[in-house]
Amino acid sequence: MGRRALIIGIEEYANVSDNSIAAKLEGTLKAAEDFQRWLSAKWDAEGVAAADRQIIFCSEPVVADGRHAAAEDITQALLDLRKEGQNATEEFFFYFSGHGFSFVKPDARSDVLIASSYKSMDLSGSSCLQLDKAIYWLRQHLGSGHQYYFVDACRNDLDGRRINPGGIVPPSDPQTSDEATTFLLQSTAPAATAAVDGRFAASLLAGLNGKNTAKMWGEDDDDTMMVRFDTLRGFVKERMKPQRVHNNVAGSDGETDGVIIRLRPPPTSRFTVRIEGGSGVPVGTIVSTGKRAPARTDTAIAGEATSLDLKPDRYTVSVQVEGAQVRDNDREIVVFDDATLTFHCEPPGAGMTTATPAANTGDVAIPKSLSLELEELATGKRELFRGMEKIAVPRGRYAATIFDRDHRVLNSHDLVVEAEEPVKIADWSGSAPHESLARRFDVHDGAIDFSESLGPLSDPDLNVWLALVGGGRIMSGTPYTDYSKIRQLPLQDFSLEPPGSSPVYVLAGLEDQGSLLDVAVSYDQSHIQWSSTIEPTGMPGLKEAVFRNMGGPILVSLRVNGGTSYTVASVASPNRATLVTITLDEFGTPVISQYLLPIGRLVHYLHPLVAQRIEARNQLADLKMLAEAERAFRSRRDILRGSVPDRFLYDVLDLKWVDPIAAAMVAYEFIRRRRLDQLSVVVQNMSTYFPDLPDSMALAQLTGAPSAAPVQGVPLFLDGLRAFDERRMPLSPNAIDYNSPWTAWRGAYD
Question: Between the CA atoms of 723, 724, 727 and 729, what dihedral angle is there, to the nearest 10 degrees?
Answer without folding.
Answer: -150
